[in-house]
Write a structure and sequence with these properties.
Helix content is 37%, strand content 27%. By secondary structure, it is α+β, with helices and mostly antiparallel strands. Helix 5 crosses helix 10, helix 12 packs antiparallel against helix 13 and helix 12 packs parallel to helix 14.
């Protein structure tokens, strides 16, 4: 007997009115695709009933491309042309892939600074390889649903920067997928659990997948998910456990993998299998044998595995500690720990997380599927199938975004951990008289000086009407959309001239850089503040020098000779101290010049008023 789900009238649209939107978990190790139908999320399977699809792509000499389980099966036989863990390359530059090159047997070439992997059928970037995985998922969905997909929500690690997010969107575009939104993986998990349990309060989302780790602290209140802080490492995951275990195996058996990529890949596969088996068993035997040649056998206990992988798990807890500090909970308790990602199946991970947070983690939803479930719910909402839903998602900007000002200083416009989407504006002005252009330099980071932050983009606003310094008003707007992508625009308010740039860096930050930028902002806070104060005084001194020198050149005749010489001497003293590292010396010189120039300023004002009154009648004034 077949069971049919009965839905009350008005709860669903007619079939021809319902639009098809899917949620895609584009993972480092595995990927999934899900759809919401009749208020239930269905994680889609292929013809073999498989729901978890390996994120593996094999390129063959006849230009055929194989994706998924069949590709992974061939990975040890053809390692140079079978690409795994490509997500770790998303948005990276050629100079950023040293670790990847050392761990995988691929041949890389640089395409305008972007790494591409050489295969028998051509050179392919991470974006193009990811597009093959997305196309594979799309085909499975359209075959199962017998309909065209009209939109998709694709999940990304919370710590993906702008370049990595843009690379993901580009991959979807190549696959012919309309991206409704890029959704942070921890937020997607919160959607899945929050809607099911409805428990309000603080939630920690611990997302440990095959290639990335994210920790997010969220507050769930009356249908609103607000991300309080994020942290993690976009190059830390189950792959690193496999790598550590494989290195132990190679060392124990002296396996000659240096010039044998197939054997190296085979050992990695055995390591992954042993790790997964030890989630349920207390011990395993590992026999290393490839193409009829045996390299030996090892006995491994769960305790032995835990000793090997413990440093990797400890790294995740350091990120958790930083995220909790950034969230500033002020004693508010954490109600639930949501476990996401296949690596959370490892018993040591669950034990460490429970000990760290002091409560048992939630594992009622399959940790491999929970992200896809949340993405499918959000996709169904965004496509318009749930017009009465009150769910709101507020992700955050992981690093501060600012603009360079005079003296190489950073003026932060959007602070780290600001909820997105967001738009913020700030007005700036010109430094010199008659200035007709302004360079807008967009930077990312937590430090006070431009040299200590990351440059994202530069563009020039031209056509500013020539005015005296400080008279022009330039409005700079920073807009971050729901996908975390940045648009910067600048407009001069008198003339209306404007310019803008969509920030798409050619490569992303390494994970160590991302974390060290935040750590450096704390460890150098006092020094940075002193340096900023010094730079501000130096800029103020240069501004005053420029203004007084122009005034003396134009109206110096208004002063008696002795006053002119006295003021000129004080200006020269200020000029000598401008580049000093002594804040007090510059400040005193500024005060001296300011006091000495007050009479001169009054004379110039009187002259301007007198000129303005020439030919005017008193009653008209």
């Amino acid at each position: 007997m077949a069971l049919m789900q009965i839905v009350e009238p008005g709860q669903t649209q007619a079939p021809h009115q319902r639009r098809i939107a899917v949620g895609i978990d584009l993972g480092t190790t595995n990927s999934l695709i899900a759809v919401m139908r009749s208020a239930v999320v269905d994680v889609l399977a292929d013809d073999s009933g498989r729901k978890l699809f390996p994120s593996v792509v094999q390129y063959q000499s006849n230009n055929q491309v194989i994706v998924g389980e069949a590709a992974r099966f061939s990975s040890a036989l053809d390692p140079q042309n079978t690409i795994i863990s490509v997500k770790r390359l998303m948005g990276k530059g050629f100079e950023d892939i040293h670790d990847f090159q050392s761990k995988f047997p691929y041949s890389f070439v640089s395409n305008q600074g972007v790494p591409a992997i050489s295969t028998v059928s051509g050179d392919y970037s991470a974006t193009e390889i990811s597009a093959q995985i997305l196309s594979y998922l799309k085909n499975i969905a359209e075959n199962r649903l017998v309909d065209k997909i009209q939109g998709a929500v694709i999940t990304v690690p919370a710590y993906f920067d702008d370049a990595q997010r843009q690379a993901t969107k580009d991959a979807a575009r190549l696959a012919g997928i309309n991206v409704l939104r890029l959704l942070n993986e921890p937020t997607a998990a919160a959607v899945a659990y929050g809607l099911d349990s409805g428990e309000e309060g603080i939630h920690a989302i611990y997302d440990f997948g095959g290639g990335t780790f994210d920790i997010s602290i969220l507050r769930f209140t009356r249908g609103v998910f607000e991300v309080l802080s994020t942290g993690g490492d976009s190059s830390l995951g189950g792959d690193d456990m496999d790598q550590a275990l494989s290195e132990w195996m190679i060392s124990q058996l002296s396996i000659p993998v240096e010039k044998n990529p197939s054997l190296l890949r085979h050992v990695l596969n055995l390591a992954r299998g042993a790790k997964e088996s030890l989630s349920d068993l207390d011990e395993v035997n590992i026999h290393v044998c490839l193409q009829g040649e045996s390299y030996g056998q090892l006995h491994l206990t769960r305790e032995g595995l835990e000793q090997i992988i413990e440093p990797i798990v400890s790294k995740t807890l350091k990120s958790c500690k930083r995220a909790l500090r950034d969230a500033n909970l002020q004693g508010e308790p954490i109600r639930a720990i949501v476990m996401v990602g296949g690596s959370t199946r490892v018993p040591l991970v669950r034990q460490k997380v429970e000990a760290f947070f002091g409560i048992a983690p939630l594992v009622s939803i399959d940790p491999d599927q929970v992200v896809a479930v949340g993405a499918a719910r959000q996709a169904d909402l965004l496509i318009g199938n749930q017009p009465n839903s009150d769910l709101l998602l507020l992700d955050v900007c992981p690093l501060s975004l600012g603009i360079e000002t005079m003296g190489g200083l950073v003026e932060k416009i959007i602070a780290r951990n600001t909820s997105i989407p967001v738009a913020k504006a700030q007005e700036f002005t010109t430094f010199k008289n008659g200035q007709t252009a302004m360079l807008i330099h967009v930077v990312q980071g937590e430090r006070e000086l431009v040299k200590d932050c990351r440059s994202l983009a530069q563009f020039t606003l031209r056509g500013i009407p020539p005015m005296v310094a400080g008279a022009a008003k330039v409005k700079v707007i920073y807009q971050i959309d729901a996908d975390g992508l940045l648009m910067v625009s600048a407009q001069e308010l008198v003339s209306g001239v404007q310019a803008k740039v969509e920030v798409k860096p050619s490569y992303g930050l390494s994970d160590e850089q991302m974390i060290s930028m935040i750590q450096a902002s704390f460890s150098n806070a006092e020094e940075d503040l002193q340096q900023r104060t010094l730079c501000e005084q130096q800029v103020e001194a240069k501004r005053m020098l420029l203004a007084i020198e122009v005034a003396l050149d134009k109206d110096g005749h208004l002063l008696p000779k002795n006053e002119f010489e006295s003021l000129s001497q004080k200006v020269e003293l200020l000029k000598q101290t401008t580049d000093s590292d002594d804040i007090q010396t510059i400040r005193k010189a500024l005060e001296v010049v300011d006091k000495a120039s007050q009479h001169f300023a009054a004379l110039r004002m009187n002259q301007s008023v007198s000129q303005a009154l020439i030919g005017q009648q008193v009653d008209r004034i």
